[in-house]
Design brief:
By secondary structure, this protein is of the alpha+beta class. Helix content is 51%, strand content 20%.
Amino acid sequence: MNWRKWNRWIHRELGFLFFGMTIVYGVSGIALNHHAARHWDPGLITRSTTTHYPDALQKSSVDRSTIESILEITGEKENFKQYYFPNNDHLMIYLKGGHITVDLPSGRIQTTKVRNRPVFSEMNYLHYNKPKKLWTWFSDLYAFGLILIAISGLFLVKGWKGITGRGGILTIIGILLPLLFLMIYLWF
């Protein structure tokens, strides 16, 4: 078997083996890019509702019965964890799966519920390497596999469409693009 057949075999087999991982990293990478741009949170779904307390409140007048009244208004009595005052005008009530912010002078109550976003949350868990341990080794193997797929891909096609022709030009462009972005973001 000549080296070209081995090269095709390596490229094909690693491509099949790492297909699932590539989808996980690709989809979660796109999601994380947009999270960084503040478009949305790929790991969490957040829902907020606003209600009002019947009277204006002051920090000194808030007691356990006031907290229970707010929890009754919001329907979150069973989810109560604790509360505190970040400043004199605001009350924070922590819930299982969210929190309540009360603007004391206006009586405005904002309830924010938070839950994991299905599929994306799990993909991000892997992408951030939160499992550690064996997953780190598998991720390193995947990264090495991607390097082999990239290198073997350079030599799949012969002639002017391959690395010695148009493929070589595209390879050079593909190397220069990240360098161009680095120059733009780091030096300008």
